[in-house]
Design brief:
About 35% of the residues lie in helices and about 15% in strands. By secondary structure, it is of the alpha+beta class.
């Protein structure tokens, strides 16, 4: 329960519907859409579209999207993979012949064909109630008429000004005289407004075929990209079967690879061997969480890739045998010095938002351009800022995540959902790149092991072990209390560069009909129930 003597925010509550996003305008858009006859799917897409405008550093139609959906609140959770694919000409050999020795952040070769628009239009067509034009109308108005730069978004923009500045269109859109404007400034994205309007009018083909696609391909080719009109025309996401595990009597659902949801489930499987007790922020407990994360992420580096192109041993990674083996590696007093290599496979082998409507349709929705402001590359005609998700690809032809034609890169963005007794009871997600898998496990442990409400659990200080190292990033509240203890255990402790992650979550109480929601204070947003 919240300590009302401390700064913070109360848990959001409601009975009819609820939305939790990282931008107040997006949350309000979702609520308005549901008040006007739309359902949770319509509301999620409308809210995300608004965030693509007002929180452009975090998300955009030049990125990718994943979603988990429970229709009517059942435990039959639908999953949609809206991640984009590499161009048909993108082979390791071709890139090496062009002199590409590594995939840098701003490289055009990190730009896969964006999958977000396909995901939005498919989900609305299959499960929504409203027309896309009406769903996108709030975002279009903000992009055309102007929006106010929020504090966290302004902070992120200032930190990425050097990435944005070299691109003329991105610089004109987000910077003023080459410098990041302060919070409270008004920005416009009129070219993006025209593109969103075309999508609302003509559907997905407005983005993947015709003049907008031609402009994007022309721009990408001008900076060295291998993209073709055929790559865009062939873009298509897919419904996939969720993967899940049981934690403290609840079923935890995640999207399967190429996302890292399997790693979140691995961490939970390891934590299941360490019942929570005492102080949730004690050095002893957080040491266990850090070591479980280090072990699971070692497997991520070895196995996680596009399952359509390589064998990803999900059953093995989620097996109780592996969970026990990894749990037994944890020494409660010191850091593991030699992480497992996972050299052989046994033969058995972002923005995030959450919406619940009056019919108890539940949507866990995440949309991302990967790095803050993605590649920093913007098509001047369409106003599309491109992600750099292909940065996750490898140029090692023997690596499971090696770049290849039509291949999807390893993804860090993961929506989550919890079910119990045949019902969806919690929609949740934690933003923050690599942190997300640990963030899922950390949040669920605090809720189920320590009985914390969603907002209190989200408010807690965070830490994250950098994969493959003994370095642990800690927010200052933890550095001041357990930093020295972690150093004694053999870790290097450092401050995170930005605030760590961002979370949204909604809990459904089926007995009372009450909705409870939380939204991360590290972002600009809020949860709102009606």
């Amino acid at each position: 329960m919240r300590d009302f003597e401390l700064p913070g925010r109360s848990l959001a509550v409601g009975r009819t519907a609820m939305a939790a996003t990282s931008q107040p305008l997006a949350t309000l858009t979702a609520i308005d859409i549901m008040r006007n006859g739309g359902n949770a799917i319509d509301a999620a897409v409308g809210a995300c579209a608004v965030q693509c405008v007002v929180e452009a550093g975090s998300t955009g139609i030049g990125g990718d999207c994943f979603a988990l959906i429970s229709l009517g609140g059942t435990d039959n959770v639908l999953a949609y993979n809206g991640s984009g694919r590499a161009p048909a000409a993108a082979t390791v050999e071709h890139l090496r012949s062009l002199g590409v020795a590594s995939l840098e952040r701003r490289s055009p070769h990190t730009i896969t064909v964006p999958g977000a628009v396909d995901a939005w239009t498919r989900l609305v067509a299959d499960h929504g109630r409203m027309k896309m034009a009406d769903i996108l109308a709030p975002a279009i108005k903000l992009a055309r008429d102007g929006y106010v730069l929020a504090p966290r978004t302004a902070h992120d923009l200032a930190a990425q000004a050097d990435v944005i500045r070299p691109d003329p269109a991105a610089s004109r859109t987000f910077l003023v005289d080459g410098k990041a404007p302060p919070a409270g400034s008004i920005q416009y994205q009129k070219a993006l407004a025209e593109t969103l309007e075309a999508i609302g009018r003509e559907g997905r083909d407005a983005f993947y075929r015709g003049p907008i696609a031609e402009g994007m391909v022309r721009y990408l080719n001008s900076i060295g990209g291998l993209h073709t009109l055929e790559d865009f025309a062939g873009a298509e996401g897919e419904y996939v079967t969720t993967i899940k595990t049981t934690f403290r009597g609840h079923q935890i659902h995640e999207c399967p690879p190429n996302g890292q949801g399997v790693i979140a489930l691995m961490i939970l499987n390891i934590l299941a061997h360490f019942p929570g007790s005492g102080d949730p922020l004690s050095a002893e407990r957080l040491h266990i969480e850090v070591e479980a994360t280090r072990l699971a992420y070692a497997a991520r580096q070895r196995f996680l890739a596009d399952p359509a192109k390589v064998d990803v041993p999900v059953d093995y990674l989620l097996s109780e045998t592996l969970a026990r083996e990894l749990a037994d590696m944890i020494d409660p007093e010191k850091a593991i010095e030699d992480l497992p290599k996972f050299d052989e496979v046994p033969h058995k082998d972002t923005i995030y938002l959450s919406v619940v409507d009056g019919d108890r349709n539940v949507v866990s929705f995440i949309n991302s351009i990967f790095f803050v402001y993605g590649s920093g590359r913007m098509d001047p005609k369409s106003g599309v800022l491109f992600h750099n998700r292909g940065f996750s690809f490898s140029l090692d032809p023997d690596h499971p995540n090696a770049i290849a034609p039509g291949k999807r890169p390893m993804h860090t963005i993961i929506p989550g959902m919890v079910t119990k007794d045949g019902r969806a009871v919690m929609s949740f997600g934690v933003m923050g790149g690599q942190y997300q898998a640990m963030g899922h496990a950390h949040l669920l442990s605090k809720v189920f092991d320590y009985g914390m409400d969603l907002q209190s659990a989200i408010d807690l200080p965070r830490l994250f072990p950098l994969p493959g190292t003994n370095q642990v990033e800690m927010e200052h509240r933890l550095r001041n209390t357990i930093g020295a203890d972690f150093k004694r255990r053999g870790f290097q402790v450092k401050a995170p560069e930005p605030a760590m992650g961002g979370a949204q979550a909604i809990w459904i109480d089926w007995k009372t009909g009450v909705l409870r929601g939380g939204s991360d204070p590290r972002k600009d947003g809020m949860a709102l129930g009606i």
